[in-house]
Write a structure and sequence with these properties.
The protein is of the alpha/beta class. It folds into two domains: 2-316, ABC transporter type 1, transmembrane domain (ABC transporter transmembrane region fold), CATH 1.20.1560.10; 335-573, 3-Layer(aba) Sandwich (Rossmann fold), CATH 3.40.50.300. The chain has 20 helices and ten strands. It has a six-stranded mixed beta sheet with strand order 6-7-8-3-9-10, with helices on both faces. Strands 2-1-4-5 form a four-stranded antiparallel beta sheet, with helices on one face. Helix 10 (218-270) packs antiparallel against helix 11 (276-298) and helix 18 (475-487) packs parallel to helix 19 (505-520). The longest helix is centred in the N-terminal third of the chain and has 53 residues, at 60-112. The protein starts with a helix and ends with a helix. 35% of the residues are buried.
Amino acid sequence: MADERAGSSAGRREAWGAIGEARWPLATVMLLSGLVNLLMLTAPLFMLQVYDRVLPSRSLATLAGLAGIAAILFLLQALMEVFRARILVRVARLVDERLAARAFRQLLRRSAEAVRGDEGPQALRDLDTARGFLASPAFSAFFDLPWVPFYVAVCFLFHPWIGFTVAGGALFLCVLTLATDRAGAGPTREAVVAAAEHRAHGDMAHRVGPLVTALGMRGRVAEAWRARHERHLDVAGHGTDLAVSFGGIARLLRTMLQSGILALGALLVVRNEATAGVMLAATILSARALAPVDIAIANWRSVAAARQAWSRIAAFVPAQEPAAVTPLPAPRGSVRVTGVSLAAPGTDNLVLHDVSFALAPGNALGVIGPSGSGKSTLARALVGLARPCRGVVRFDGAAIDQWDPDVLGRAMGYLPQDVELLDGTIAENITRFDADPDPEALLAAARAAGVHEVVLRLPGGYDARVGMGGLALSGGQRQRVGLARALYGDPFLVVLDEPNSNLDVEGERALTAAVQAVRARGGVAVVIAHRPSALTAVDRILVVNEGRVQMDGPRDEVLQKLAALTRSVPTRVA
């Protein structure tokens, strides 16, 4: 718990550090806000002079001079407001640029470690929320709030009664602002959660839409979506009701206060304690004094949403990037797994216990076992996606965490059970979106995976786009393209998780040839499979059952033992 609090505090410092980098632009905004607020006195002072000087004297020259000065000051005020708004837009972009890349890298790290939850995508959405708020009029209103006492002081110069009235109205609006914050904090948090659940369910339904239709589940899925949608509408509606209610109270108070100031000014004029110009100038000035508070209340939903978004960003963004590791040459030799215990993704439940084996260049290991025995988790550990609870994975004698993940990833090939392709061309996916791909290596990988002829028959060939997730390709085509991607660049270690689940006979032959080619060039292959046809090219087999290694040895020897055990089962039963 203490570590979590320390991490959150460090993340907060990092998030506020992004604001700190914009301190000079924000100081400029404060200066411009001060000038803007001083120039806001132009309108009431102009009206005061017109009523108290021009009308009694009937001097057109005085009117023209005052109008010219007022026009220049109004123009300066407008220019400064434009400059202030443009600077805030750039401040928002500066903060986003400081945090966005770090948040995205953290999202990738947490996704690679199979951390459950919506924190990663939500953090990116929170950045959009924070950036939009920093560039909005609601944020600029906070630079005007410190000038409210200044306007109240000017009202006191007009007349003490006017000053006390405006001060009382400002104080009441401040109390109303605090009440708005207290009442709206909970609904805002609930709205974020409800919106995330609503969005996640919609995305899920879009992904599995064909399956839902084929199984006759559309009505049930639609009903589940409707329940989440209604909850989202209820929570959002409750927040809107609160915001509208408090906003209506604020507008009512401001309207009544302006009318009250006008009536009070008229009373003072009747009693010869103020002039008509003072009456109208005080009315305008009171509206200006309360405007920042009124804007803050009217936009309090966005204020609360931005504040909560900033808190989530501070909790999500790491305090500092992982320290750079000393560069090591790309691994090309042995793979050694020593006493590795692994937990299921996102849990503390161990699914593998004390797994140990060693592979030399030219070895190919087949890993078999029943479903849920931890085979895929072992594959993830070999490519650095699962961190062992105990034990260590070493390449060429160095622990896996001694390499930069990107450098190590380029020296490895990985084909997961669920093949995911990125939106792009087939060539881009095979070459891992390399900025300067090697055409010969591309074709070599495609031929090794047996997908070259398949790609050539597609419209567009290697330049055909696969669509988001590879939906433009069949399951077998996606698996072959994924295999070619794993083989691209002749990686020293190739880990294939159920590589033949969607392959036909021709594809399985290509898979066998690919594993043999990896062995022939001195690479290391690990093949996880249920079907024996995927194990033709391996020379060792590791049998895993209930998270523990049951057998480990040469392929033929292990297969003979398994066959003997299978034959003896009916005898024992009898």
